[in-house]
Amino acid sequence: MNRGFQSFGVLMMIVVLAMMVGGSLADAQNLPGGMLVGRVVDAQLGSPLEYANVVLYDSESNEQITGATTNNDGLFRLMGVRPGIYRLEVSFMGYYPTTVDTVRVTSPDEGIRMGTIELERAVLMMEGVDVTSDKPAVEFKIDKKVINVSKHYTATSGTAVDVLENVPSVTVDVEGNVTLRGSTNFTLLIDGRPTVLEPDDALQQIPANAIENIEIITNPSVKYDPSGIAGIINIVMKKQRSQGTNGIANVNVGLDDKYGADFLLNHRMEKFNVYVGANYNDAAYPGSITLENRTTSGDTTSYINSSGDMRWHRRFYGLRGGIDMYLSPGDILSLSGRYGGRDMENTAERDYDEWTVPGDTHSLYTSETGMDRGGNYYSLNTDYTHTFGVKEHNLKGHVMLSKRSGDEESTTELVDEDGIITYGAITREKGPSNRLRANLDYALPLLTTNVFEAGYQASISRTTDSTEMFEYDTLTGEYEFRPQFSHAIEYDDRIHSLYGLYKGEWGDVGYQGGIRGEYTYRLIELLGEDESFTIDRWDYFPTAHLSYQLPAEHEIMASYTRRIHRPRGWELEPFETWMDAYNVRVGNPTLAPEYINSYELGYQKHFGRNFLSLEGYYRETENKIERVRSVYDENVILHSVENVGTDYSFGAEAMLDWSLLKWLNVSLTGDIYDYRIEGTLYDEDFSRSSFNWNTRVNTTFKITVSTRLQLNTIYYSPSVSSQGRREGFFATNAALRQDLWNKKLSATLQLRNIFSTARHEFTSEGSNFYSYTEFSRKSPVVMFTLTFNFNRYRPERERGENGEEFEEEVIF
Questions:
Q1: Of 580, 658, 285, 593, nearest to 412 (Cα)?
Q2: Contact (Cβ atoms closer than 8 angstroms) between residue 808 and residue 706
């Protein structure tokens, strides 16, 4: 399926949607009656109430004329209302119902705006206990999955990575590397803004206790930056909305030198809201590693086997704060900032056995390696929102200024049986990065339920990276500078974007179509070497979304998006960098960006307190970028990156959230997909495929009103790449949570990887090399967390989109 055909198909979809919009106008004129349109919101929060019931009665006979439920924006539309006088009743579970007594329809083609209808929250109190219902661990919206972090007890003392282990569409390996539907190329947002750090670094740093929820958006609309071929992961941090001063704090400690703490304080008045938070985390993860390498040159085959102990040590700290100023009923100004630092160490001591065939002499020695990577970062944000009388009619502006520093030092020493250093190398990398990003978004309601949106985005960044290498001189015993492996490179990136989006409803059909155009300018300069590379290109990204509301809370959704992954960092560096004694990497500045065409079809069904979601997807990635290996020298592997061809993924996801009993909830998710990659590598055609699947079972036992026990099991099947295969693994986790003193204090005990079954095994091979790696971390991991809640802090994560409060259900 070529790009031209796909673009033509998408443009045709947009044309069809435009025809539907035009058709809806004509149909509205020909309906045997008028139309009532309105919006239902939470009176306190102003947030929309989805699935609220709206019923229209005849004022004289009390006969029900028609009815509807609100959509995810709280909107409703009643069609075919004949002239007359009516009574409108609006209700929603957990809220007091409201009635509009006199609704006059005077002509058969009249369109009446009911405006915004507010419902007051009703909470049943019983001996000082709020009797409400548990919020599900995962909620499915029309365009995203929302993970309610507070319900993932097994990740309480961990980070965002630990939460994502239990999330549909996401895979996390033993090292904590995150993939979204099998791809590491996704966009990470924090509170809807791009992160200053690399996604994996940021996710490893954010404490789970500081997160309100996590949004997974696999087919974003044109409003979002199209970078990240797999989609978007948005981390929504906690921020209190209730009046007064309140806060929450967490302290955790674990075996093998693990400890941390975080807090959030919030003060809200009528005209402003101020918050400040901080976190610190220090965690060590001991483990073991085994490697087997084989290279062939001519008639000689060289072997290296090694095994030993490793230790990962990560320290993070962060500060965040902000103020929201309510300047007028239609104007909100927000100022916020973040500052933090990180220090990640990885040390290993391994015993080596090296030999060649032909030959029978074995060389035995020890390798001592270390990697230390760290730096500081900050970001400053300004947001302004102006509403033009109607909530959907607004103008939003955002500006973010950010900077990060990055220092990395890698050390390798080979020591023979007599304790003499036979080889040593030190590699140092530095890379400050500055970025300015600005957005302007405008939304205009049209007709009754339609909205036109448009916006502009600018992203300007400059990064300077330098690499230095020092090699051990066995004669002098000193490390000597090696200029041939030392370089400096500067990146100047500028991306300007414009988008237009039209969305609305036509009966039970919701539709949305848009297109985004992006201009990219990138200049890569090798400082002092008179060499540069330039990218000057326009790209276009269409999207289309459809939904159809069936009776009895059934819903079908379909979508198409086109996204991009632009290579960056060392992938573009055209020089050699030694990683250790046996591995060298080199980038490729001529890499073309990856383009993905993604199609999804979904179905959702609510039945009582239970929920079923089914989703099918097809993805095609053009110019697939893969990290490939080849032989650099005897026992030395060269790591590089290439556009190897095209890959295809065709699969399905399912989730069942089932409350079997009042005290037992089971959440079952599964993902199966067929993966295929085809292309050319080193002038040879290749094709590889694998059938992949993973499943998660999360079981929560409500032992008492204040006690929860949670067990979850995760399995990932094997998977392939252009040159390698990752083996499958599974893990079992458990957590026990006890609330005390009316939830002012909570204690959580966690055990992760209880049976020590989670491990990483990867095999890579080509025509003249073979490489096998296996490593695992010491387990089980045991953590204990205390959570302090003062002044009845109730974060937004304990509220639904509709504002309803969700707490622990009373067991009768």
A1: 580
A2: yes
Residue 395, strand partner residues: 386, 442
Whether the per-residue pLDDT at 12 is higher than 60: the answer is no
pTM here? 0.76
Q: CB–CB of 314/374 below 8 Å?
A: no
Nearest to 546 by CA among 535, 531, 562, 558: 558
Residue 250 burial (10 A CB sphere; 0-12, 13-18, 19+): buried
Mean pLDDT of the chain: 83
Q: What is the pLDDT of residue 198?
A: 78
Half-sphere CA count of 641, side-chain side, radius 13 A: 24
Radius of gyration of the chain (CA): 29
Query: What does each C-alpha distance from 267 to 243, 449, 754, 798 come to in angstroms?
Result: 7, 36, 41, 18
Cβ(304)–Cβ(582) below 8 Å: yes
Q: Which of 189-198, 424-433, 692-701, 729-738 has the lowest mean pLDDT?
A: 189-198
The rounded distance, in Å, linking the Cα atoms of 286 and 254 is: 13
Joined together, the tokens standing for residue 127 give: 């001996």
Query: Could you tell me the CA-to-CA distances from 126 to 363, 744, 810 in Å, in that order?
Result: 76, 18, 10
- Nearest CA among 526, 536, 549, 456 for reference residue 223: 456
In this prediction, residues 597-614 reach a mean pLDDT of 83
Residue 133's closest CA among 670, 642, 804, 812?
804
Instruction: Report the distance separating Cα 248 and Cα 794, nearest Å.
Output: 9
Which residue type sits at 608?
G
**What is the dihedral sign for C-alpha 150, 153, 156, 160?**
negative
